[in-house]
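Q: Sequence in, structure out?
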Amino acid sequence: MWISDQWKDYEIMDAGDGARLERWGTVILSRPDPQVLWPKTLSEKEWEKADGVYVRSSKGGGEWTRHGMPDAWQISYGALFFHIRPFSFKHTGIFPEQAANWDAMSSIIKEANRPVKVLNLFAYTGGATCALLHAGAHVTHVDASKGMVQVAKENAALSGLAERPVRWLVDDCARFVARELRRGNRYDAILLDPPSYGRGPNGEVWKIEDAIYPLLADCARLLSDTPLFFFLNMYTTGLQPGTLSFLVQRAFMEAGLLPDPSGKQESVSGKVRILSEELGLPVTSPGLILPCGACCRVIFG
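A: Exactly. Output:
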């Protein structure tokens, strides 16, 4: 498991009875988490200290009950700073477990000691984009939500990265990748974090079971002749780390980046490592690690 354990401004204080008790800077939130099937460790008195509690509705969705929770505030991770805004759909604008990926990608880019072009697809509020820019990469940030791209720009500015080389694009990710292939553009690294279901800026429907493999196959062909890495994040229930490895291996074989099992085709990119694991966050009480999605990392060289 890849664990994000370097946070100072984020902490899961407890997890139990279908919820997490989290500290975001100085603000404490209680949010539902359906995988938390065990009882709470801390007392109800401790849980009642939450500044904001997300309450699900029997009709779907939910809303925040505020006990002093501000509309927005800031937290940091190392040299990076982020706006936190509790949304009506439970999210806050940052997935803290992704810090393990931010650190891994940053290390690869710094060690490459050369200009690196990175494509960040389904890029959300730009946590990874900020980490990549800080590491020295040239980043193309693509998301279908104009609002989320605006928040990503604000996070980059907050982190002092507004003048770094980045393209901010509101676009359907699959269509953008197809156009980049036709234009002959290539990237040294690609990161994608697709939702289970979504819509593009023009109403394009994204269903992961139908769309993920064609997109992976196109992304494999979009890599440069000297690629560094390819990261695939996944939160969709049922798509485990082993499944991600199989998906990526199959797509990369088709693109000629990996040898096929028959031995008739050699890899064109040298040594390739494919690693798939769960992402995790420490839970202070009782000191365990909470799984938070999965990731497949392809590392070249």
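The chain has a mean pLDDT of 93.
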